[in-house]
Amino acid sequence: MPSFPEPQKAKRWGASLKPTIKPGIPHRSGVTHLLLFCFLATSAPSWGFTPPPSEDLPKSFVYKDKSITLKNLTNPFKGNPKVVKKGGTLYTRHCFFCHGDLLDGNGLFGKSFFPPPADFTRLDSILSRPQAYTFWRIMKGGQGLPEKYEPWNSAMPAWEDALSEKDVWKIITYIYDTAGQRHAKPGKQEPPSLKRGKRVYLEKCAFCHGEEGKGDGPAADYSMPQPRNLTKGHIKIRSTPFGKIPTDKDLMNVIDNGLRSTTMPGWKHLPENDRKSLLVYIKSLSKKFAKFKKKGKKHKITKVGKEPALSPESMERGKALFMTQCSGCHGVEGRGDGVTTQRIVDYSSSAIWPRNLSQPWTFRRGSTRKDIFITLRTGLSTSAMPKFSEKVFKDEQIWDIVNFVTTLAPPTQPKMQSPIHAKKVAGEISDDPNDPIWQNAQASFIPLGGQLQEKPKSYFPTVRNLTVRAVHNKKEVSLYIHWDDPSLDPALIEFTDVEVSPPPPLPEHMRGKEPKEALEPASPEYPDAIAVQFPVSLDKQIPHFLNGDTDHPVNLWKWTTATNKATEIHANGLKGWAHQEDSAVRAKGHFSYGRYSVILKRVFKEDEGDIQFQTGKPIPIAFNVWDGYAEETGNKKSISSWFTLWLDE
């Protein structure tokens, strides 16, 4: 249930919180509110927004052609422990992508949409409201809110056509029971035990890892990477050598902190004895731990010496090593586009792309120099990431590689910038992404999430963010957008030069007598594409961010690798798309080492029915991205919430 709380009234944040309106701009219902919304979206606390109060609960609503009165509506399953388990299964299939395993709004897409997902564990969230209220919110979704809450903001789907009344009540039972446990008074703490560990495991872990620990729980098909098969005794993030069982400290680290950019959360909020019991039980699921102890073995821990100082010489040596040892998978710019990926990437077997080293905030272990050193030394068990053995590589060489890897990315995740300022420039606007005009433009980082409103849904989108720059010359507006995609659509080669990571210059000890046959780029069934979205009218209520609706249509500028051109689309929802015969949008795309970049241009004024650009006025803008290699097409795509484009005067 990717449910999102709705924006609260400004007075809840304090009487002084007002949208910043530039002098001379008339107030418009939607557009003015968008400025306030964008401020809140980029500065609100991580726990999200308070939902509408109970007094906004309608007396009744229409569900499948029948009227449901909410005043005396009660949960038929309240307090039934068997229903809690069934509700948890439904929750993991429909809700945890946004709300997370912990119900705290920190799911995989928890930071992708605005307003952010509801934190059900907060006392001022739905726990303080009647369950009939939650039933209404789940059934009707964001677009079923009262008009004053501007439903175009919310990514909460309406579940009335996808879930039965009984299923919704089961999910509600699970949410209230599980979230309520966070506020229950702690009982007597039992000492760590196998019995207690099993109870905690079945309550908290079995939904993903399965009741027997084989990684086949009801949420397994909704997780990428898939949950660990705990009976094998392997975990990726270890301090022990490749293929060896982890230490207790390694296991507890994963239990406490989870794994970043996955559906595995940290459970540090559980009582210490519960976590220690969980550790005991997890070790019982694999025979390897008992055998290890019986044979009196000891763990060999990877040692990390003192970090050497960064130096240009070390980075240069590291670059040479990286190109021979790492670029085959990670690519020359570290974006996961190496030629070897065509042999190891397989979605059907849950194999995943090599890590994009230009986005260190996604590193599972962490992104410090020490974290990267340990990952290189130990490798990642059950993956294609090998270890760098002490017999072949000295510590100094590992540090050299680490030092070079740190140059591939910004030190921290870029912050969102809204509004997206389009600087006024003189003369023609270049369509060369390396032109100084683009280097001097403000870069805005835009997070993306999967489209989960309608089937086919995008649970594991390849593209999770993009960067946009904008300029204008008072006659036309131009956008420069780039995003990382490790798989080039070779169709683009017909229209422009592309730069792809070459086969690495393998070191002497790895070369064979005969060169291996070069792999041709895979040809996807669907093209890669991006669409920029604007409301048709700036004088009306802003449309829903998912391509609008019949009463509030949007314009889409869609570029694809199939033509290296853009088409204009008039959309009134996810399905109501009409392509315009003649497109006034000019576009030119490029691909360089795992990164697409597209420059789009259009004159300010166009035919009636298309957006008319103006300076000094907030303009809603949103984005859709498709990865053809991952079979993304139609509704299966990455999406963003609304942001603001501002053309400087």
How would the blueprint of this fold be written?
Elements: H1 31-43, E1 60-63, E2 66-69, H2 81-94, H3 96-99, H4 131-140, H5 165-181, H6 194-204, H7 206-209, H8 248-257, H9 272-284, H10 287-294, H11 312-325, H12 327-330, H13 341-344, H14 369-378, H15 395-405, E3 420-424, H16 436-439, E4 444-447, E5 449-450, E6 465-472, E7 476-484, E8 529-535, E9 554-560, E10 565-571, E11 577-579, E12 586-591, E13 595-603, E14 618-626, E15 638-639, E16 643-647
Parallel strand pairs: 3-6, 3-16
Antiparallel strand pairs: 1-2, 4-6, 5-15, 6-7, 7-13, 8-9, 8-14, 9-10, 10-11, 12-13, 14-15, 14-16
Helix pairs in contact: 2-5, 4-5, 6-9, 11-15, 14-15
CATH class of the largest domain: Mainly Beta
- β-strand amount: 5-15%
Low-confidence stretches: 1-48
Q: Tell me the span between the first and last alpha carbons.
A: 43 Å
Share of helical residues: 10-25%
**Class derived from helix and strand content:** alpha+beta
CATH fold assignment of the largest domain: Immunoglobulin-like
Tell me the CATH architecture of the largest domain: Sandwich
Q: Helix segment count?
A: 16
Q: Report the biggest beta sheet as strand number plus sense, adding barrel if it closes.
A: 14 strands, mixed
Rough outline = flat
Q: How many structural domains?
A: 4
Mean pLDDT, rounded to whole units? 86
The counted number of beta strands is 16
Radius of gyration: 26 Å
